[in-house]
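Researcher: I'm preparing a figure for a lab meeting and need a structural model of a single chain. I don't have an experimental structure, so a prediction will have to do for now. The sequence is pasted below. Please return the structure as tokens so I can convert it later.
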Amino acid sequence: MRHRQPADQAFDPTPDYSPVAGVVPTGTHRPHWEQEGRAYFVTYRTVEGFQLPPPARDVVLDNLRHWDGSRYFLYQALVMPDHVHILVAPLAKFAEASQDVAPMWRLQEILHTAKSYTAKVINRLLEREGRVWQEGRFDKIVRSAVEFEQRWEYIRNNPVEARLAPRPEEYGWLYEWRSEQETDT
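Model: Understood. Here is the structure written out token by token.
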């Protein structure tokens, strides 16, 4: 398990949820709902039949951690052999002088960068060609603290359920954010 101590306070993943206020449909094939200031549970998968070997999983996790704090707040990330789960909250882009409020990074932008970059690096690393990731993603707005905790536990127990590790802490491709208070104990 890897820990990060933030420079400032943690992003609140569960402000009061409104099912309609500021919800924006995105995506072309099926709608993806985004709402500013929300955390998301996101899953994306490798193409059928392709498994990420350990060095490729390192590439994916390192890339997700790279953008933490600039494009999104990364609560949790798990890279399995054939899929990735993240709990993430997009952050605001840098505002230009002409803007009163900076727009938020969209999940589509975040995942396009992550999938495109890691596919190129993984293909080069494994000396192969072809697609690494399936098109699309599954994403869900986290609506409450209870749901956030359920998603957190689901992600952290995924490698145990798949029999890849006896305990979540022993799986090498699990990142979990911890507050300063939690890391001091």
